[in-house]
Amino acid sequence: MPLDSLLDPIIYRFQSVLGSQHFAHFVTYVLGLMYCEGRHTVTNLYLLGKGHRSYWALIKCVSRARFEVLPLVEWLLTPLRFYIPARYS
Question: In this structure, which long-range contacts are made by residues 75-80, counting pairs with CB atoms below 8 Å and at least 24 apart in sequence?
Answer without folding.
Answer: 76/7, 76/10, 76/11, 76/30, 77/34, 79/10, 80/3, 80/6, 80/7, 80/10
